[in-house]
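in:
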C-alpha cells in the first residue's frame, strides 16, 4: 500500500459514512431522520424518517455483502414503516438486495435514490404508536444534549431506549 492510498474502510466506518449520507438525503427530501430507533420487538432500525405527510420510511444500512447475507431480521422492519429502503455504498453488490425494497446508494457524503420501494401502509393504531415513540425518542435525545446530567434520568422516565 502506498502512502498516498488510504487504508480500506472497516465495516463500522463504512456503516457510519452510509448513515450520514442517507441522513443528509433525508434532510434534502424534507424527511426527519432519527438514527438507531428501538422497536417494541427488541429490534433497532438504523434510520427511521418521518415524512412531511406523516408517513414513515425505514432505511436499513448495509456495509457489505456479508452484513446483508447474515441479517435475517430486516423482513421484520416492514411492519414498522410505510416504505423500506436499503442504503449501501458504491462497492456493495446491489443484485443481492430484494427488488421490493428501495435502494439508496451513497458515496463520499452524497446519496441518491436509485429505486423506489413497494409501499405497505401502516395500520392507523401502529402509526400512532410509532409516531409517539418517534417523538418521545427525539425529544429525549434533544434534552440529553441540552442537559447531559439529566439525560439518564429522562431516558429512564421515558422508557424508550
Amino acid at each position: 500500500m502506498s502512502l498516498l492510498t488510504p487504508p480500506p474502510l472497516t465495516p463500522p466506518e463504512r456503516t457510519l459514512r452510509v448513515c450520514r449520507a442517507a441522513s443528509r438525503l433525508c434532510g434534502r427530501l424534507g424527511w426527519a431522520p432519527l438514527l438507531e430507533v428501538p422497536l417494541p420487538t427488541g429490534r433497532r432500525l438504523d434510520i427511521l424518517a418521518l415524512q412531511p405527510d406523516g408517513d414513515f420510511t425505514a432505511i436499513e444500512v448495509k456495509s457489505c455483502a456479508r452484513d446483508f447475507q447474515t441479517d435475517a431480521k430486516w423482513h421484520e422492519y416492514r411492519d414498522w414503516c410505510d416504505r423500506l429502503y436499503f442504503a449501501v455504498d458504491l462497492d456493495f453488490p446491489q443484485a443481492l438486495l430484494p427488488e421490493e425494497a428501495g435502494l439508496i446508494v451513497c458515496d463520499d457524503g452524497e446519496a441518491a435514490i436509485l429505486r423506489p420501494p413497494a409501499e405497505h401502509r401502516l395500520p392507523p393504531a401502529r402509526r400512532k404508536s410509532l409516531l409517539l415513540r418517534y417523538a418521545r425518542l427525539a425529544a429525549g435525545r434533544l434534552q440529553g444534549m441540552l442537559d447531559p446530567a439529566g439525560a439518564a434520568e429522562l431516558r429512564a422516565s421515558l422508557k424508550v431506549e
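note: Helices lie at 11-29, 65-69, 124-146, 148-158.
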